[in-house]
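Lay summary. Proteins are chains of building blocks that fold into shapes, and those shapes determine what they do. In this project we predict the shape from the chain. Here is one chain we studied, written as its sequence of building blocks.
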Amino acid sequence: MTEHSPMPGPNPMLARVRREDLPPRLAEMWDAAMRDRDEAVLIEVAGNAPESIEWYYDRFYGEMFHQGRVEARLKQLMRLKLSTLHGCAFCNRGNEKAALAAGVTAAQIAALGDVAAPVFDARERAVLKLCEEMTLSNMAGHLSRALHAEFRAAGFEDGETFELGMVAAVLTGMAKFLFTFDLVSREAVCPIAPPPAAG
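And here is the predicted shape, written in a compact code that computers can read:
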């Protein structure tokens, strides 16, 4: 398991809706967030626009992340690698649990910082390298000929590679949103600093 160094918790500008005032579906999400991630500020703020968070959970996660062309285990590995690179403490707490439940090993989680580690096979290595291209802190990232060739050699069809790129894009965009709106706790390594205390 990775060690986490969280920074002070989130303090959003947008109103937070109390759990007892959330619609039933968001109340369930609130309970799950508290159980799996020890905080639910995101869900409380989403109470202002429940349909938005329901779209994210139902359409993105329900139809693309947990289904789609590529097995969910690889997407769980991708999500954890990205949340680790982005320093999202809220994300990491739940993503580690979900990755383990999907079949990612504790040894793989411990080696996330070393793409060449022998605990990863060629498919996993290609996915992890794509994460490093898609992360918020890599503004020069791109799918190079060499990385595309790695995907092909690992048995990925272009449709699968495209899907993985879309998943990484949504997760990375969501990370930027979560940090910009100060909706989640972050790790000290987060490349996006929290807002000043007074402001």
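What the prediction tells us: Residues 154 and 189 are 31 Å apart (CA to CA).
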